[in-house]
Amino acid sequence: MKIIKVPIGKVNANPNNPRFIKDDKFQKLVQSIKDLPQMLDIRPIVVNKEMVVLGGNMRLKACLEAGLKEVSIIIADNLTPEQEKEFLIKDNVSGGEWDWDVLANEWNQEELEEWGVEVFKYDSDVNLEDFFEENGDSEKEQKFKIVLEYSEQDFAEITELFKKHSGTKEEIVFNFLSR
C-alpha cells in the first residue's frame, strides 16, 4: 500500500464512525493540521476502495475546516466488509496511557496543551481539600488520606523504607517523595 494525495472532495466521511472529537479538542486538531500539515503525510487517512474513511474521520473533518484542498490517503482495498468494520473500531481504540511523570519532566506544558494533551494545571481557585478523603467520626478523631499512584519499583522501595526506618508512614513517604 502506498500513500497518495487526492483532492479532499474525493474522500467520504464514514457514516458509521464510532468516535468524535468535540469543541475545543476539535479546534486543537484543526490548528495542529494548520501548524504541521506534514503530519498528514506521515499518518495518512485510511480509506476503502469506495473512498470511505476507515481511519481518520476526525482528521478529514479537521482538514476540511482547515481549508485543505487535498489529503494524503492509503487505500485499504484488500479488506472484507467485516475487516473494514473491525478496522474502524480498532483504529479508534486508545492504545495506552500517558506516563505523566515523563510528560511533567521532559515536555513543555504549554506545548502539550496546544497539541491536545490535557495536563493538570494548578489553579489557586482549586480547593485542594477536594483531593483528600476524610475518615473518622469526630473532629478529634478525624484523619485524612492522600492516595498516591506509583510504580511497582517505587512500591518496593517504599516498603523497604518502612522496614528500615522509624517514623510515621507519612514522614517516610514524604521523605521518599522529596528525594
Structure notes:
It is elongated, with a radius of gyration of 24 Å. It has two domains: 3-98, Conserved hypothetical protein from pyrococcus furiosus pfu- 392566-001, ParB domain, CATH 3.90.1530; 128-178, no CATH class. The mean pLDDT is 78. It has 179 residues and is α+β, with helices and mostly antiparallel strands. Helix 1 crosses helix 3 (57-66). The protein has helices at 23-35, 39-42, 57-66, 81-90, 100-106, 109-114, 152-164, 169-178, and strands at residues 3-7, 45-47, 53-55, 70-75, 133-135, 143-145. The protein has a four-stranded mixed sheet. The protein contains eight helices and six strands, in the order E-H-H-E-E-H-E-H-H-H-E-E-H-H.
What is this structure, in a nutshell?
This protein folds into two domains: 3-98, Conserved hypothetical protein from pyrococcus furiosus pfu- 392566-001, ParB domain, CATH 3.90.1530; 128-178, no CATH class. It contains eight helices and six strands, in the order E-H-H-E-E-H-E-H-H-H-E-E-H-H.
